[in-house]
Design goal:
Mean pLDDT: 77
Helix content: 25-40%
Distance between the termini: 129 Å
CATH class: Alpha Beta
Radius of gyration: 39 Å
Length: 201
């Protein structure tokens, strides 16, 4: 009798036992993505390239080549002072068509073409006008253009050295060089690179 009671109690106890639910699996850790580094800002000034030349045949007057050299020198000096970009100088004559062709074939250089002309009301070489035009690389679209005048108002005297004729060739070359500097400044401004460049004496 005692054996039957024990068996009944054991069976009843096992039937009432509840199975504990399994513990939830630990979540798999999700890898934290590393922050994407911000793209480095490219310094526009350091990537610029300029190709500068003069059209020495686009004039009804036969101007001395030294005048073109002076315009080229002034413009190139300003472009170099106003940006860290390289400046390639062509000291030979280059036509507008050649400048456009150069810009289309070169995807990295702005082509700057300088041309000297006599003003419409000119009485002498003292009334020269320096025309400049900038073609965009790859497309040859005109980025900017304009005129710089050799007889414009100056902020200071033009120094050409002691004993020099203030109306002679050296004086004109200095005026043309200053016009080239003005053209260079305006080109930099058009490309949003204008900086405070100290003026030359």
């Amino acid at each position: 009798m005692l054996v039957l009671v024990l068996c009944f109690w054991t069976a009843h106890a096992q039937s009432g036992r509840r199975h504990a639910p399994p513990a939830p699996a630990a979540p798999v850790p999700t890898p934290t993505p590393e922050p994407t580094p911000a793209p480095k800002k490219v310094d526009k000034a350091s990537t610029l390239l300029f190709y500068v030349g003069t059209d020495r045949t686009d004039s009804f007057s036969s101007l001395p080549f030294t005048y073109y050299d002076a315009a080229l020198r002034g413009c190139v000096d300003r472009l170099r002072a106003g940006s860290s970009g390289a400046v390639d100088v062509n000291d030979k004559s280059i036509s507008r068509g050649e400048a456009i062709k150069k810009a289309k074939s070169d995807s990295g250089s702005y082509v700057v073409l300088l041309t000297l002309k006599l003003d419409d009301m000119a009485r002498s070489y003292d009334d020269l006008v320096l025309q400049f035009v900038v073609f965009a690389p790859g497309t040859a679209k005109v980025v900017t253009n304009g005129n710089s005048f050799t007889n414009g108002a100056r902020t200071g005297p033009v120094v050409v050295g002691p004993g020099r004729n203030p109306t002679g060739g050296m004086y004109r070359e200095k005026l043309i060089e200053l016009a080239g500097e003005d053209a260079g400044n305006r080109i930099l401004k058009a490309l949003h690179l204008d900086v405070n460049i100290p003026a030359k004496p």
